[in-house]
Amino acid sequence: MTENQYYLTTPARTGKMMAIMLGICIVGGAIFFSLWDYWISEPAPVVAMMAGDSAPTEVAVHTGATLTSDLSFIESSDFITLAFNALPGEPDNNPTINMEVGDKVIFNVVNDGVSFHAFGVTKDTEGFGGVIPGSEVASPSNPLKAGESGTSEFVAGEEGIYYYICTVPGHREQGMVGTIVVGDAEAPEVEAAPMATEPAKEKAPVSTEPVAYDGPISIPEGSGVPGCQETNECYIPYHVTASAGTEIVWSNDDTAAHTVTSGSPGDGPDGIFDSSILAGGLTFSVTLDEPGEYPYYCIVHPWMLGNITIE
């Protein structure tokens, strides 16, 4: 009978092994987060499926005429109504494009608003999915900022109705959608909004009196839809006070992406802080050392307003 043998290592060798493993984790993490824009530049397949994306189709061939369409992203003064070229009721609002199978249209788009926008062509009748490859200008995760522009192309592969849209979630529903009629397809009739049978109930505004900062400021669910500005609940709390040197944290508790950008919709960002695109579930923080007022807003949804008072 032999005694059991145990193979032991020294504390020094164990320490070296742990150091190597830690180094691998640090380097891997650095590479991952340095490429963050790449990882979020395309939605996961399940997101595309939920958005209504269909399987890739055969690339259409340009055999006909070449058209040009100049489109401008614009917004109403309250940022609730969005459109191309002109607001509803004005000439050239969301102009209809007529083309034949094989024709190509070159889109020249410019962001003349203050919000972020992106562009694409889709056959989907709603939502922001199903964008046809090659028709994109920017993307929801890397959109056009105010004053920026871009060019894309769309070749009509078959008869039917297509739509050019702003691909930032929610902006199509606010009015940024135009129709492309290919061939003899009939353009859909736009139904008038139903008349309200009862007067809308006014929401009681939330007090604008500042409250002491005591934890993350929430970007609540649904703040990407106009209405939260009526009760000052686009950021909760809407107005906080804090001592100089306090770290202020925001938490995006919505499913839509937002920004936390110092400044105001009318004057634009002032450069003091900016979260850039903040996806749902993420946080952003900033430390303000100088006393004063720091108004901020969401560039994607400019009706979202908040304020910080540093004492």
Can you describe this structure?
The chain is mainly beta and 311 residues long. The chain has two domains: 61-182, Immunoglobulin-like; 211-310, Cupredoxins -  blue copper proteins (Immunoglobulin-like, Sandwich), CATH 2.60.40.420. The chain is built from three helices and 17 strands. The strands form four sheets. It has a six-stranded mixed β-sheet with strand order 9-11-17-16-13-14, with no helix packed on it. The chain has a four-stranded mixed β-sheet with strand order 2-1-4-6, with no helix packed on it. A hairpin with a 3-residue loop joins strand 13 and strand 14. The chain is flat and about 85 Å long. The termini are far apart. Mean pLDDT is 84; it is low at 45-56 and 192-201.
Based on the model shown, name its key terms.
311 residues; Immunoglobulin-like; flat; six-stranded mixed beta sheet; mainly beta; 17 strands; 11% helix
Number of strands: 17
What is the helix/strand order?
HHHEEEEEEEEEEEEEEEEE
Q: Give me the side-by-side strand order of the main sheet.
A: 9-11-17-16-13-14
CATH topology of the largest domain: Immunoglobulin-like
